[in-house]
Every structure is written in structure tokens, then in C-alpha cells.
Design a protein that fits this description.
The structure holds 2 protein chains of 2 kinds. By secondary structure, chain A is α+β, with helices and mostly antiparallel strands. Chain A is built from 33 helices and 39 strands. In chain A, strand 13 and strand 14 (339-352) form a beta hairpin. Chain B has a 5-stranded parallel sheet, sandwiched between helices. The chains are: A alpha+beta, B alpha/beta.
Chain lengths: 1072, 125
């Protein structure tokens, strides 16, 4: 035993050390000493000493008792208190902590030792007991059996928890109750007896039933041990095991056993079970019966018992089964002491053990003695039968021979009969199948009829038999006639055939073809066979046909077309309708004498013959329709010699075999048609020529296909496209309207218009549109669209020129109205201007010292003119007056210029001083200041380089003014865009002459015009200026004026960034 | 040489006044009228050498004044004072001696010229 470890909790160090010393001398180990309660708890739980000496009074927040309490909560380390005083309160508190003892201070060694020792021992004991107790408890609580303790009165004093599992009662439920209450009623007596015997000390085990809480019966195996205390019975401890399951199994097994046993014994056949040693283990009653002389069979070897042999039987199926492990069977003799008394069939079933080996055999034995005997009997009888059979064979052979002869005879008879029957059947069927009524009369009395006759006449056979044939006839006349005719013919030919009428039973009349033949020519009374054919339908068809033929004949005779048939070999007329007269002038009769040469022009005749040859050659080949027709146009010769244009439709006429026998045809006079055709062609040619050469641009489209079927030169001139370029309206649209949206609008518009036209018949539309020409330039054109049936005609109008003219007119109009306004304004201004100017002139005049009156008036007024003048000069008044005059003059000049410019536009050509004209125009331009257009012409430096020798040029003054002004304006606007620092706009105007032309060159130092644009600037609507800054027509109008009106030239030279020079060339000779 | 007698007929009073003033300063004898009727009445009373007549008069056309004036005084030299620069004298007037030199355009820029014009015409006889 190791040293006990002790923890000292004492706040007085001296005492602690002293105690330690003592303990160590007592051979205890001191784990340490602490002064406070908290430390004590820590150390106790950490070190786990065997004992703690705890001073009650400690330094720190908690005292020893509190510390002990805390320690005891977590562990069961024994604690001994050290106490100096022992007041009752403290003691009470201390007691609650279940200390192991108290030691009074000062502590002596002996007390220390005894207390500690006994405490440690007690603690250890307690632990052990605790452990044992735990063990027992575990045991009891974990075994499946119930442990019950019952006292001397039978009261249950203890029940282990398992009681719940088995009985449904909780342990504490049954405590205190008498155990007998739970016992199954039937077993109570037994149990009481056991209990009583136990009391005597006998240890008893038994089995009995209890009732569970649920009411179920539970079998228990019990083992009880009585306990005696001081010789007296005190209690029994009973161990109870639940054996319900086993019991149930036992019972089931018993029942099974009994059942099997019964079955076993009831089987009529024998069953014998052998073990692996051939020893009989079990037999049933039947076996016992058979081998009653050998009982008991169990334990004996099978070959001993059953065969009285000392060793295994070879034939025994059981030994075989042992070896093979499979079912074996055989027949063995039933041997009894008297000898063999029968036969047994034995089936041996091997029983397989766990490892697959044969652990035994079950023999199933059947008494087949009776069967065997029976089989013998059969065999015997069989032999007898065979013998009898052989006799029979011989007899049969004899009979066979006779039979064959009979057969032969029979066959002959049958054949004859068959023939007869056959013939009769044939006749019957003929009669039945005949579509004609067949009957027989004797002296005109009906003796037999077939079904058809009945059907035809509506009478039944019975109704007809024995009747005179007269009933079939509507009248006596018919009856008599037939009789006469028929018999007359028979006399001559042996058979008579006559058409007649019969009357059916229902009264309807039918047409009949009657044919009669006597059975014997020499003896008419023997009977006459007649056939009657209903030809009513036939007659009807015949009539209809006749009518139809008549109809067709009338038709053929009356249509104006000639129907004819020609013989295929001679080509002569085999037939012709009367219409031939209308076409070729011949009568029907005359025609048959004609040959083809007579009626067809030689050239066409060659062609016709060729065609016929072709067709004959083709004929009969696969895929060639025998009924094919050909259409030909010919020139035929009228009787009167004139040429008739005809159209023929012909086909081959064939016989029944399909051989060509002639040509069937219809011919029409197409002279009229031909004439019309030619006229139409001529007319079309004319129209075509007209349109071709027309200056009107025309294009024609077919509405269905959209194809351009025609366009003339004039239209190509406008846009450059020919029919090769635009064969269809879609191609046109793609070329002329590059913008897809625009194109679609257009295309849709046109389609709608065409639809409109077809629906409402509105035939005419006009619209303006811009188109792209083949050379990529654009033109404004006007389309006039006319719908004519299946076609649409487009007429194009190039509006570009018109537009220019329009613009010019507008300009002119503007100018004119402006002019008018200006003129009016000028007039109004002239008067006040006049006053200003005249006023100044007058004023200045009256200041003139040269005028006497002036001097005189001054003197008269007491001064002198010089002084006045001096004053005026001094005060600048003279200057002012001069200023006013200058201003007035300037204003007058402006008005003059304006008026001159706004004069009614005269395109009259007259000799004009160009230099003067330019100056005038520059003057006008200098008054042009437009805030909107952001330029001030006055800012521009004008350099003039005039040729003084330039003669007067015939031109329209206003026109040239307009052009020069336009160029000046363009230049100033262009130069206004130059933003470079220090830029000064300059326009240089040069006039001169070279050869036939006078020229005006206007050069600016503006931004210039890019080469690629130079061509376009003269085009109408071309402008680089923004919206509202000009229509872009100025240059095109100028171009128009110079080039068209003056037959001059206007051109530009420029490089981008290097300014531009516009040159106007005017012919010096008057333009015509 | 005696003074050249001029009549000025114009409905603008300032014009007549200034014209009169200047011409008088330069040795002409001037009378004024402000309507055609007034002018003709004056012409009927007194002899004049020259007449400066505004085309647009309130009561009648200036050309009518000229025609009637010349009837009254056949030797009078008439001048048409007009604001219209397009003005061309009719054949009748031309036959009465009105030519391009007889036309004075408003506004008169140089009175000197006018004096000379009048002198020239009058002296021509």
C-alpha cells in the first residue's frame, strides 16, 4: 500500500509546518499546504489527495467549511477538520459536509494518526463496498432473468427491474404484493406446494405460468433459494426465466411430432428410415406388418431385417442412393420365412446432412405383388392374342382378293354414273347460266323452262308448266306470227329465229329474239327447244344510237369547219363535210376527184408529205400516243384559184386492229385571222417605231412578272440604264434607289398602285422622285404612270432642267419683287435725300465769299463773311456740313446702284463695259452684310486687274451682274470660314481677252475647293453650306446664264487650302 | 445778259426753297409753284426761260404741265425733275424738245451741273 497523500489547509504557517512534520514522521506524504479556502479547492481537485486536513478558520473569502463543501461536491476525498473552537453553529455547518472527523487544535500526533488512518481505511472500504454494490447491481440489473425476493408471508420484497420486460409490471408496482396473485390460476396449487416445500429448505426448480399485466400467459422457469436467518425461514430469493417461447416451441414440436407420427403410420405403403450405417431408425406400421416376424425392426440392419442376409444387397436402391446421393428405385422380393411372397418396389431417398453428405435414407416401399401378378396375366393373354391374330391375317388376305374384283366393277359403274351426272350437271348449269331464257314446248305447250326464262317473264316454273305459250304473248297476232315464222324457218333451215314481243306477268312488254330448234327434225311433236333473248335494252340502245348518229351528222353538215377523211395511201378524199364549199369552193361531190396537189400550195404540200411520213414512222413506238393530233397552217388553193390560209388539225384514222387507214382532220379558214395578225404586227411595228424614236422617255413593265419589256432611247438618255442593265423592276429599284428604306417605300407604293388599278380601275398616277443614274449622279425626275391592263407604262420627265429654270424664275421673281420694292423705296428716299443734299449745297453756296449777296448780307447784319466763315471753321461746322453732304452722296449712290440692279430683268443682249459692270457689282456686294451668313464684304480687300482695252461685250447686263455677284458672295462666305490668325481675305478680279472670248477671273484666298468636288459644284442643289444658308442653286444658275444663255464658259481652278479662281468666258461676238 | 428766268414746280416745299435759293445765288431769277395748276397759272402770267417740273404733282402729271406750259410759252425750256431713274420721255414730249439732257434725277448731287445744264439749254435757243 502506497503512502497516503494528505493536503494541509491551514493559514497559520507554524501550525501547518508542525502538522507536516508530524505527518511525515507518521509515514504519510504531504502533497502541500495552502492557506486559503480557494487554494484548497483548487489543490484538492487538482492533486486528488487521499485526505485533506482542513482548518475551519482560514484567511481569504471562504472558510474551511465552505471549501470542504465545494470539494465534496466534486469529489469524495475525506476531509478532517482542524478546529480550535467548537461552537455548535460551526459544528452543525461542518456536519453537513459529512467530514470524516474533527481534530482539536493543538493537534497531537496520536490523534492525528488514528483519525487519519481510520478515515482513510473507512474511505477505502466505502469505495470497495460501493464497487461491489455496483457490481451486484449491474449484475442483477443486466441479467435477463428476474430476481425476486419473497418473504415468509409470500410478499414480494424485492423485484429486479427485468420484471417489467417479462410481465409488464414495474418493480415497484409489485413490491409489497403477494406473489401468488400473479400466478396463473391453474398453476397456483403447484406453486403453493413448491413454496411450502422451500420453506423447509429444499431448493426447488420448476416451471409455471404467470399472468402478465397485459393478460398474456408467460411461462417461467423458476429456481428458488430459501434464506434462513438463525434457523428461521425468512425469505426466498427466486430467479425466474421467461421460457414462454421455449414452451410454445415445445408444444408446437409435440403437436408436429404427433401429427407426423399419425401420418407416418397411416400410410399404406411402408416407410423405413435408415441411418448411415444401414441401421433401421424408424419404421411405420405397414413395415411392421410385413416384417412382423422380425420385430423390433429398429436397430437392426436393413438387409438383416428385410432380406435375412448378412450383407448388403447389391440390388438395394438404398445402397445405391448412399453412393450416388440421388433418388434410386428398384423392385425387390418380399421375403418372409416361408419364402418369397411378393414383390416390393423400393424408392430410396437420401437424407443430406449439414455438410452435404448422406446422413441417412428414407425408404419408401410399395407392395406391387398384385401388380406383378397382373402384369404376368397380361403377358399371357398377349401371347394368346398374337396367335389368334395370325389366323386372322390369313382370312383377311383371302377377303382382300375378292374385294379387289368388286372394286374394279365398282369403279366402272361409278365412272358411268359420273359421266351421266356430269353431263346432266353441265346441262343444268348451261341452262342456269344462260343469259337467255331456255324452254321446251310440246305442241306449243310449255313443258320445261330454265330459271332465266322465269326471271324474264316474271312467272314461276310452276306457273309456266303446262301452259300454252300464248300466255307469253301480248296479242294473238304476235302469237300467230311467231308460230308461222318460226315453223317456216325450221322447215327450211332446221332452226327458226324471229324477233317478237312478249308480255311479262306484270304486263310490261319486252322485246324478244326467239330461236327455236326441234329435238327431232322429223318429229316436231317430240318437242321444240327454244331460247329467248331479251333485246329490249338492245333495241333501246339501237334507237339512241340512231338518234345520236343523226345528231352528229347534222352537226358535221352544219359547222363551218370542214371535217374530212383522206385515204392514207392515195390522199384522196374519202369523206368531206359540206363546209368544204365555204373554205375551198368545191361541192362535196367534186371533192372526190381531187388530189392534194389541187388543194395545197406546192411548198406546203412538200411539208405536209414530210409530216405524214414522220408520223407514220413514229407510229407504234413506245410512248407514242396513237390518238395524237397535229396542227398545221397551210396555204390552200381555192377552186377559183385564190390562196386561202387554213389551219388543219389532223390525226390518224385506224381500223379495228389499229392499222392506219386514213387521215381524219378538221380545217378552218384562217385568212381573216391572218389578215388581222399581219395588221396587228404592222401596227405593233409602227407603235414600236414611234416609241423608239419618241423623245418622250417611255418604259413598259409587265405587271405579272415585273419584267421591263421595253424602254426607249429617250429614257436611257435621262438615267443611262438600258434594258440590259435593268431587265426587271426590282433591278431598277436597286439601281435607282440605293437607300433601302426609300426603295422599299417606292416599291410598295408601286405595287399598291397596281393593286388599286386592278381593283378600282384608276389608271394614272404622277409622282416626283430622285433617282440615281447609271453614272452615279442624281436627278430629280417625274414619273407618269399609266396602267393598261396587264402592263404599266412609265413616262419619265427630267425635272432637273425644270428645277433650274424654276429656281431661276424664283430668283428672278424675288429680284423683281425686291426690285419693285426697292424702286418704290428709292423713290421715297430720293426726296428727303434731295432735301439733304440740296440743303447742304445751298448752305455751302451761301457761305461762298464769291457770291456778292453773301458778303452784303453779312455786312448788313453788322458782321463780315470772313468772321462767320472763321467761326464756322473754328467750330467745325463747315466740316459737319461737308460730312453731311458726303453722307448724303453716299446714300444717293447706294440707292442708284440698288435701283439699277433691281431693274426688270432684261435678258436682252447689249454691248456692256465689263469693267464698269464689275465695279458696280462690287459696289452692290459691299452693301451686302449678312449677320446670318457671318461675313462683311467690306472687310475684303478687292484687287482689280482690269484690261483697259477690253471692248464692250455683248451680254445681258443683269445676267452677268448676277453671276459676278454670286461668285463674290460665294468667295466671301468661303473666306469667312478661315480662322487662321492674321488671315486677311482678298479677292482679285481680273478682266482680259483672249481670242474669241473676254474673260473675268475672280480669285479668292479662301479654303479652296477639293478636286473631287469641283465637278459637282455647278450641279443644281449642290452645296457645302448648311441648311438655310443658300439653296445651292447659285452656281448652277450662273452656269446656266453663262453657258446656256451666253454660250460662254464658267469654270473653276482650285486646290484645297489654296483658294479658288472662277473664270467666266464670254464670246466677244454676239451669241446667236 | 439778263438773268435766266426759271420756274420750279414741285410739291416738296423744301426742295423748291433750296433750289430757288441756290439758283438765285447763282444769278437765276426763280419763281416757285407747288401744284400743276399753280404752275400753269404762273406760266400764263409771266415769261420764263426754263421750267423745272416734278413728274409727280398732286393735281396732275408733270408731263401734262410741260405740254400745257409749252403751249402757253413755246420757247420755254422744260426740265423734268424725277426720282425714277428709268424714266424715258414719251414721243410727244420728245417732239416738244424733251431729250435726255432735259432729265434731272433726284436727288441732285451737283447743283453746279444743273446751273450749267439750264444755261446750256436756254442759250441754245
Amino acid at each position: 500500500m502506497s503512502k497516503a497523500k494528505i493536503l494541509i489547509v491551514e493559514d497559520e504557517l507554524v501550525i501547518a509546518l508542525s502538522i507536516q512534520k508530524s505527518l511525515e514522521s507518521l509515514d504519510y506524504e504531504v502533497t502541500g499546504f495552502v492557506a486559503t479556502g480557494e487554494e484548497a479547492v483548487d489543490k484538492a481537485l487538482g492533486q486528488n489527495p487521499d485526505l485533506i486536513l482542513m482548518d475551519i478558520i482560514l484567511s481569504g473569502a471562504i472558510d474551511g467549511i465552505e471549501a470542504a463543501r465545494r470539494i465534496r461536491k466534486k469529489t469524495d476525498i475525506p476531509i478532517i477538520y482542524l478546529t480550535a473552537n467548537a461552537d455548535s453553529a460551526t459544528v452543525d455547518r461542518a456536519r453537513d459536509t459529512l467530514p470524516y472527523g474533527y481534530l482539536n487544535k493543538p493537534v497531537n500526533e496520536r490523534d492525528l494518526f488514528t483519525n487519519i488512518d481510520s478515515s482513510i481505511y473507512k474511505h477505502r472500504m466505502e469505495l470497495r463496498i460501493g464497487e461491489s454494490e455496483q457490481k451486484y447491481r449491474d449484475l442483477i440489473e443486466n441479467i435477463n432473468d428476474i430476481i425476486l425476493t419473497v418473504d415468509e408471508n409470500g410478499t414480494i420484497t424485492y423485484a429486479s427491474p427485468q420484471v417489467y420486460e417479462v410481465s409488464g409490471y414495474k418493480a415497484d408496482e409489485i413490491l409489497g404484493n403477494n406473489f401468488i396473485n400473479y400466478i396463473y390460476s391453474e398453476d397456483r396449487n403447484k406453486v403453493l406446494q413448491i413454496y411450502a416445500e422451500s420453506k423447509t429448505g429444499v431448493k426447488k426448480t420448476d416451471e409455471y405460468r404467470v399472468i402478465a399485466k397485459s393478460g398474456d400467459v408467460v411461462w417461467l422457469h423458476t429456481s428458488g433459494r430459501p434464506r434462513f436467518i438463525e434457523g428461521r425461514f425468512r425469505s426466498i430469493s427466486i430467479i425466474l426465466s421467461d421460457i414462454t417461447k421455449q414452451k410454445k416451441a415445445e408444444e408446437a414440436a409435440k403437436k408436429q411430432e404427433a401429427f407426423l407420427g399419425a401420418v407416418f403410420d397411416s400410410i399404406q405403403d411402408g416407410i423405413s428410415v435408415l441411418d448411415s450405417d444401414f441401421r433401421i431408425v424408424r419404421v411405420n406400421e405397414t413395415m411392421k406388418k410385413w416384417y412382423s416376424h422380425m420385430l423390433p425392426l429398429e436397430g437392426k440392419r436393413c438387409y438383416e431385417a428385410y432380406h435375412m442376409r448378412g450383407e448388403r444387397c447389391e440390388i438395394c436402391p438404398s445402397s445405391r442412393a448412399f453412393e450416388t446421393g440421388k433418388l434410386e428405385a428398384d423392385i425387390v422380393p418380399l421375403i418372409v420365412p416361408e419364402g418369397q411372397v411378393g414383390w416390393l418396389e423400393v424408392f430410396s431417398f437420401p437424407m443430406l446432412g449439414e455438410r452435404g453428405n448422406v446422413s441417412g435414407i428414407v425408404e419408401y416401399v410399395r407392395d406391387i405383388t398384385a401388380r406383378e401378378n397382373a402384369e404376368d396375366e397380361i403377358r399371357r393373354k398377349n401371347d394368346e392374342l398374337v396367335a389368334a391374330n395370325e389366323e386372322l391375317q390369313t382370312i383377311i388376305e383371302e377377303v382382300e382378293e375378292t374385294n379387289q374384283e368388286f372394286e374394279k366393277k365398282n369403279k366402272e359403274l361409278l365412272r358411268t354414273q359420273s359421266d351421266l351426272a356430269h353431263r346432266e350437271a353441265l346441262l343444268q348449269s348451261i341452262f342456269r347460266a344462260a343469259p337467255a331464257g331456255i324452254g321446251m314446248v310440246h305442241k306449243r305447250v310449255i313443258s320445261w323452262t330454265n330459271k332465266m326464262l322465269c326471271t324474264m317473264t316474271g312467272y314461276t316454273e310452276t306457273e309456266l308448266y303446262g301452259q300454252n305459250a300464248r300466255i307469253l304473248y301480248p296479242t294473238d297476232e304476235d302469237y300467230e306470227y311467231v308460230g308461222r315464222e318460226k315453223y317456216a324457218q325450221i322447215d327450211v333451215r332446221g332452226t327458226g329465229s324471229v324477233e317478237t314481243r312478249w308480255k311479262r306477268k306484270d304486263g310490261t312488254i319486252i322485246d324478244i329474239l326467239l330461236s327455236s330448234t326441234p329435238l327431232e327434225l322429223s318429229n316436231l311433236d317430240a318437242g321444240v327447244v327454244f331460247t329467248a333473248l331479251d333485246i329490249t335494252e338492245l333495241k333501246r340502245v339501237e334507237q339512241a344510237l340512231a338518234e345520236t348518229v343523226e345528231k352528229y351528222r347534222l352537226l358535221a353538215e352544219n359547222i363551218p369547219y370542214n371535217m374530212f377523211v383522206l385515204d392514207i395511201n392515195t390522199f384522196k378524199y374519202m369523206y368531206t363535210s359540206p363546209a368544204i364549199t365555204n373554205i375551198l369552193g368545191y361541192n362535196v361531190n367534186e371533192v372526190f376527184k381531187l388530189t392534194l396537189d389541187d388543194v395545197i400550195q406546192p411548198l406546203d404540200l412538200v411539208r405536209v408529205k414530210k409530216i405524214v411520213k414522220e408520223e407514220i414512222a413514229k407510229d407504234g413506238q413506245p410512248g407514242v400516243d396513237p390518238n395524237r393530233i397535229r396542227n398545221l397552217e397551210l396555204e390552200q388553193i381555192h377552186k377559183n384559184g385564190s390562196i386561202i390560209a387554213t389551219e388543219l388539225t389532223v390525226k390518224f384514222l385506224r381500223d379495228n386492229d389499229g392499222k392506219i387507214i386514213g387521215i381524219l382532220g378538221i380545217s378552218r379558214d384562217i385568212s381573216e385571222r391572218k389578215r388581222t395578225q399581219i395588221a396587228l404586227e404592222e401596227s405593233e411595228k409602227k407603235f414600236r417605231m414611234i416609241i423608239e424614236n419618241s423623245p418622250i422617255p417611255i418604259c413598259i413593265m409587265d405587271n405579272k412578272t415585273g419584267n421591263i419589256i421595253y424602254l426607249n432611247e429617250a429614257i436611257t438618255k435621262i438615267h443611262g440604264y438600258t434594258m440590259d442593265d435593268i431587265s426587271n423592276i426590282t433591278e431598277w429599284e436597286e439601281a435607282a434607289y440605293p437607300d433601302p428604306a426609300y426603295r422599299k417605300r417606292n416599291s410598295d407604293g408601286l405595287k399598291e398602285a397596281i393593286r388599286d388599278y386592278s381593283a378600282k380601275g384608276r389608271g394614272f398616277r404622277t409622282y416626283e422622285i430622285d433617282i440615281r443614274c447609271k453614272n452615279d449622279s442624281y436627278k430629280r425626275v417625274e414619273f407618269q404612270v399609266m396602267f393598261m391592263g396587264d402592263q404599266t407604262v412609265f413616262i419619265l420627265n427630267d425635272l432637273t432642267e425644270k428645277k433650274i429654270q424654276q429656281e431661276m424664275m424664283i430668283q428672278t421673281e424675288k429680284m423683281t419683287s425686291l426690285g419693285g420694292m426697292a424702286a418704290g423705296m428709292a423713290h421715297e428716299i430720293n426726296n428727303p435725300l434731295g432735301i439733304i443734299l440740296q440743303g447742304i449745297q445751298g448752305a455751302l453756296s451761301r457761305l461762298d465769299p464769291g457770291v456778292k449777296k453773301n458778303r452784303e448780307t453779312a455786312v448788313k447784319l453788322g458782321t463780315d463773311l470772313d468772321t462767320i466763315l472763321a467761326y464756322l471753321k473754328e467750330r467745325d461746322i463747315l466740316e459737319y456740313l461737308n460730312g453731311i453732304q458726303d453722307a448724303g452722296l453716299r446714300a444717293a449712290k447706294i440707292i442708284i446702284n440698288m435701283l439699277q440692279f433691281s431693274r426688270r430683268s432684261e435678258t436682252s443682249i447689249a454691248p456692256v463695259d465689263i469693267n464698269l459692270l464689275i465695279d458696280k457689282t462690287v459696289e452692290i456686294a459691299s452693301n451686302d452684310y449678312d449677320l446670318k451668313k457671318k461675313y462683311d464684304f467690306k472687310m475684303i480687300r478687292i484687287i482689280r486687274e482690269y484690261d483697259p482695252k477690253l471692248p464692250k461685250v455683248p451680254c445681258s447686263e443683269t445676267g452677268i451682274e448676277q453671276v459676278v455677284l454670286n461668285l463674290l458672295k460665294n468667295s466671301s462666305q468661303a473666306m469667312a470660314t478661315m480662322k487662321t490668325e492674321g488671315y486677311r481675305p482678298v479677292i482679285t478680279i481680273e478682266t482680259g481677252m483672249d481670242g474669241k472670248y473676254a474673260h473675268i477671273k475672280i480669285t479668292d484666298n479662301g479654303p479652296g475647293i477639293e478636286k473631287s468636288f469641283q465637278k459637282q459644284i455647278f450641279e443644281p442643289f449642290y452645296t457645302t453650306k448648311g441648311v438655310g444658308m443658300g439653296t445651292g442653286l447659285g452656281l448652277s444658275v450662273s452656269y446656266h446664264i453663262i453657258a446656256k444663255i451666253h454660250k460662254g464658259q464658267i469654270s473653276v481652278e482650285s486646290d484645297a487650302g489654296k483658294g479658288a479662281t472662277f473664270t467666266i468666258k464670254l464670246p466677244i461676238k454676239r451669241p446667236k | 445778259m439778263s438773268e435766266i428766268r426759271v420756274i420750279i414746280i414741285d410739291d416738296e416745299k423744301m426742295i423748291t426753297r433750296m433750289l430757288k435759293g441756290y439758283l438765285e445765288d447763282h444769278g437765276f431769277a426763280v419763281k416757285t409753284a407747288h401744284t400743276g395748276g399753280e404752275g400753269l397759272a404762273l406760266l400764263a402770267r409771266e415769261p420764263f426761260d426754263a421750267a423745272i417740273i416734278d413728274l409727280r404733282l398732286p393735281d396732275m402729271d408733270g408731263s401734262e404741265v410741260i405740254t400745257r406750259g409749252i403751249e402757253i410759252q413755246p420757247h420755254i425750256k422744260c426740265f423734268i425733275h424725277t426720282g425714277s431713274i428709268d424714266y424715258m420721255p414719251s414721243e410727244d414730249l420728245v417732239s416738244m424738245g424733251i431729250d435726255l439732257d432735259s432729265i434731272i434725277h433726284k436727288p441732285i448731287l451737283n447743283m453746279e451741273d444743273i446751273c450749267r445744264m439750264i444755261e446750256k439749254k436756254v442759250k441754245k435757243g
